[in-house]
Amino acid sequence: MTMGTSAFSTFAAVGNREDITDTIYRIDPTDTPFYSGVEKAKASAVNHEWQTQALRSVAANAQLEGDDITAVSRTPTVRLGNICQILYTSARVTGTQRVVDHAGRDDEMAYQEMLAGLELKRDIEYNLVGLSTAKVTGATTTARKFASVNAWITTNTDKGGGTAADPTAADGTSARVDSATLSAFTEARLKNVIKKCFDAGGKPTVVMLNSFNKQQFSTFTGRGTPMQDQGERKITAAVDVYESDFGRLKVTPNRFMRQRDAFVLQMDMWATAPLPGRSMVSFPLAKIGDSDAKVILSEMTLESRNEKASGGVFDLTTA
Question: Tell me, what's the pLDDT at 19?
């Protein structure tokens, strides 16, 4: 078949209206399981501080009737702190772009501001769990940094050999030393860390890890062979809850973590602490020329309430 002679077609036409939907599609991940899952505290200074307390060791305790009681020495609290870090991004839109017709959004500035907020939230998650960063006090030419989760976990770890080293102190002042030698993520290593957490007094509730080792986790006991449900027409080959000897842990994948890390976390022993009025706040910048600009900013830190409640399996193979 051929087009009819002299038929006027879209190929020759001028003035046909464009066809564009009012939906804008995004697939970039915006879920932030650590930042969204931990508690929220309040900071009131750049150096945000808190205290931890340890009890004396248990002892055989049998006393004489009528015995004179002597004072028992007490362990003082430990004062810890982390530095508030400033994270921001911006959005700038020309005056012309703000007034022309748009597809998929009414106000270009509001749309760009929303995107910037999502990006900043991702940056916060990455700085919390995707880096191994010791705290930096900062100076006029040096940005302040909070110590990431990796710089706090020292007590309950499994590094699988190699040359890795835990932070030298549980105070955020030193970063984890990675090993060039990586070891496979195994159930035995995970159980080792969970046991250490329990022995130290912790009650971890979440195993958080990235994509490769989430799939490795799903091959642990009970998932060596996928299970097929004929009625539901589905195959189950994943594990999302781990029943340990010391309680149930939710298994949470996190796209922004390093592939080589798997955290075992008691989530209520972690918190983010922004300075007042500095949590995901948006404000305009001075107008320069024919454009408008806004900054989306957070100034916050990470509160490690007691690192002995959590742990980690480190230096994992990533492929």
Answer: 72
Report the pLDDT averaged over residues 270-277. Answer: 96
- The answer to pTM > 0.85 is yes
pLDDT at 169: 93
For the chain, report the end-to-end CA distance as a whole number of angstroms: 55
Lowest mean pLDDT among 3-17, 97-111, 197-211: 3-17
pLDDT recorded at residue 23: 62
